[in-house]
């Protein structure tokens, strides 16, 4: 009598194989679904776009290049970002008049204290002049704290024993106080603005009185990853930091209340897609 059990054994083996494959498939689907739910990293992290004139570059050449690019600009609505350089330092009210209603995203400013490198600041400003004035008030408060810190350092034993160190601190306190005074009075210290508009509107803006240049930047998509470096009004040949030759005031002199700047960011160079014992680090000046 036959007792051959081979076929049933084969059947059980095949069933186990199919079950294993099904389990593997379910696991694979679960892994893929999980990876889909995970946030994708921002591939633009670390990338910085620079718009403006590079340190040491020719200002006339930059102005010509910006004009040529503006003439060729042909971008769809809502338009491109552009860096607007002014021919002089302007008050917040003057900025509003000069831009003539152009949509503003930010302004750049510094206090033009003769013989001193003052801090370049960037103020977010959708409403001009109100946001600019508000930003200046915030900077004035910060500059008051900075001046007080310099004075405290100048009075410390290390500075009283070192005349040169004391001079550095006294000078820093004087400059910070001038900046604070300027900001509190809505000074004439804004020298550039970042706007966004259609090509024809940008070309019309370039023709307005007080506008030195309109540099279109259609490649800019994120302002927080863009560095703007417009030429200062006094820069006529080469873009370079202002000469830092000022001295601390001698005893008995009163602090001046010249114009002052505002911060949210600083400005470097064009090259698109690309409380301790010592003195505080100097502010950006180029």
Describe the structure.
With 286 residues, the protein is of the alpha+beta class. The chain has helices spanning 6-37, 59-72, 92-99, 130-155, 157-160, 163-184, 199-206, and strands at 49-52, 80-90, 104-109, 121-124, 190-197, 211-217, 226-229. Strands 4-3-5-2-6 form a 5-stranded antiparallel β-sheet. Strands 1-7 form a two-stranded parallel sheet. The longest helix has 32 residues, at 6-37. The termini are far apart. 36% of the residues are buried.
Q: What's the average pLDDT?
A: 80
User: What is the terminal separation in angstroms?
Assistant: 103 Å
Number of strands: 7
Can you summarize the main beta sheet?
5 strands, antiparallel
User: Pairing-aware structural class of the strands and helices?
Assistant: alpha+beta
H/E element sequence: HEHEHEEHHHEHEE
Query: In what order do the strands lie side by side in the largest sheet?
Result: 4-3-5-2-6
Shape verdict: globular
Strand content: 15-25%
Helix content: 25-40%
* Computed Rg: 30 Å
Tally of alpha and pi helices: 7
């Amino acid at each position: 009598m036959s007792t051959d059990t081979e076929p049933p054994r084969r059947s059980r083996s095949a069933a186990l194989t199919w079950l294993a494959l099904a389990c593997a498939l379910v696991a694979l689907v679960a892994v893929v679904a999980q990876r889909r739910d995970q946030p994708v990293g921002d591939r633009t992290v670390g990338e910085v776009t620079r718009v403006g004139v590079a340190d040491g570059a020719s200002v006339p050449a930059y102005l010509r290049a910006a004009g040529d690019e503006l003439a060729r600009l042909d971008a769809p609505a809502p338009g491109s970002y552009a860096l607007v350089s002014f021919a002089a330092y302007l008050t917040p009210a003057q900025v509003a008049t000069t831009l003539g209603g152009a949509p503003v995203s930010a302004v750049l400013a510094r206090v033009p204290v003769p013989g001193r490198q003052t801090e370049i600041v960037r103020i977010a400003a959708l409403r001009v002049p109100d946001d600019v004035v508000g930003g200046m008030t915030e900077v004035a408060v910060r500059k008051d704290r900075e001046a007080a810190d310099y004075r405290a350092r100048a009075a410390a034993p290390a500075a009283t024993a070192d005349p040169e160190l004391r001079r550095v601190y006294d000078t820093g306190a004087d400059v910070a106080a001038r900046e604070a005074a300027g900001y509190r009075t809505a000074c004439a210290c804004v020298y550039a603005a970042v706007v966004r508009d259609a090509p024809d509107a940008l070309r019309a803006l370039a023709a307005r009185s007080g506008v030195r240049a309109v540099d279109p930047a259609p490649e800019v998509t994120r302002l927080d990853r863009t560095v703007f470096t417009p030429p200062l009004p006094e820069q006529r040949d080469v873009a370079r930091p202002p000469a830092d030759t000022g001295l601390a005031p001698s005893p008995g002199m009163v602090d001046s209340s010249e114009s002052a700047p505002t911060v949210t960011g600083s400005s470097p160079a064009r090259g698109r897609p690309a409380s301790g014992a010592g003195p505080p680090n100097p502010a950006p000046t180029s």
